[in-house]
What does this fold into?
Amino acid sequence: MSEPSASPEPNPFDILGEATVALVAKRFYDHMEASEPALTAMHRLGDDGRLHPEVRERFALFLAGWLGGPQEYMARHGHPRLRMRHAKVQVDTAARDAWLRCMYAALDDAKVEGPLRAFLDMRFADVANFLRNAEG
It folds into this structure.
C-alpha cells in the first residue's frame, strides 16, 4: 500500500511552524492579561487572579489543530464546539473586538505577514463574528 499523497499546498501550521504557533498562542493571552481586563475576566482564573495555565494550554492545542497541525486538542477534549463553549459568556461587539486586538497583536509579535497574515486576519474575524451571542 502506498503512502497517502501530501497536500498540494501547505496549511498555515506547516507554514508557520510549531514554535511560531505556540508563540502566537502565548502572546495572545499575554496581550489579553495586559490590556483587556474584561476579556480576561471571562476566562478561568487561577488563585493568583491570572489566567489559569490550563486555559493557555488548551488554546495552544486548539490553535495548532485549527491551523492544520496535530489534532491533540480533539484527542484530549473532543470536538471544540466553539459556540457551546462560549455560550456561558456574553460575546458582544466589544468582546469580539478585544479578542481580535489580542490576536492581531500576537500575530504582529510573531511577525506573521503577507498573504498568510491577510488570510488569518480574515479567518479569525470570521470566527470572532461567529461567536457573537449578544447585541452591542
Summary: Helices lie at 12-16, 18-35, 37-40, 53-66, 72-77, 82-86, 93-109, 114-130. The chain is about 65% helix and 0% strand. The radius of gyration is 16 Å. The first helix runs from residue 12 to 16.
